[in-house]
Model the fold of this input.
Amino acid sequence: MAEGYIISPEELEMLPENGYMLIDMRDSTAFEYGHIRGAVNMPGEECLSAELPENKKIVIYCRVGTLSIDIAEALSDRGAEAYSLSGGYTGWLRRELEGQEIVQKTKDVERSIIKKFKKNIWCRFTKAINEYQLVQPGDRIAVCISGGKDSMLMAKLFQELKRHDKFPFEVVFLVMDPGYSPENRRVIEKNAELMSVPITVFESDIFDSVYNIEKNPCYICARMRRGYLYSRAKALGCNKIALGHHFDDVIETILMGMLYGGQVQTMMPKLHSTNFEGMELIRPMYLIREDDIKHWRDYNGLHFIQCACKFTDTCTTCDPDSRSVSKRLEVKNLIAQLKKVNPQVEKNIFRSVENVNLSTIIAYKDGSGVHNFLDNYTF
Done:
């Protein structure tokens, strides 16, 4: 590939703002999670058939700058002045993080939680903790950080809770490296540094273990990661692990169970571990909306990786046709459509598992087995 098809982030900054068009060729989910300011989302090879400005340079980026090179070359062959952004979004993100001032960024992030986002984030965080009794005096909690927006916000919320010091408890900010690329691991470490979160990192070989698994590798990987987190947290003297699942995750799980699993169930705010005695899983972001988390992220100019899985480092996810759309994404889109007709649909889905009337249920299961409405019908 000729050098002429590639442009560096430094060279991009030197271009006049109205002199180029920036195209993000990752899928729409990745784009929504985070993108370079001013970019237009055209997943996969969509830009090859799009109407592009003739008087502007075309700059394309993917995840790590691999697939975008081929697209830039194809556009150049058609007469466009097209370039691939060296390093892709990950490279740009790493450079962006390196240039930020730590002390001021930490202050800004912490101030935003107790000021601008007090109602929608901080109050909902404390409400979940109180309503579901998630944190108790004497707890030692492993706050599990994946590197995404949800877990990093959760870490800052726990730091704020510690400052209030209403009762004694301890936290450990735990990061597991299951085989991240050096670039992705550096992004996680730099975000933690920027936000003054003192992380404890441990390594595992989970990515290598699931590399050759063809069926449901992501599910198996997630289960293995959960087990490793429990094990390390317990070794550190913790009795709980905290995960960053939010309100949207909860209602999506409810609908997924109904539509694809044929059952009514939900993601619980806390669970006792069945394999690690004395350990408990808690979800303190249970009542926080994802849109509010995104707003907090964008307001503070924060950038997080969507997925640090090494299988995406080759940009296979830049092309949405290369993989099937996940069931969770289908449900997320369904809820978005329903919300246009009924703005209360999300609350109603959530309330449906709080207001279960057993007298109108055909059958239900509990610890003692399956119960049918006919069991007591004659009475």
About this structure: Residues 312-325 have pLDDT under 50 and may be disordered. Residues 3-96 form a domain with the Oxidized Rhodanese; domain 1 fold (CATH 3.40.250.10).
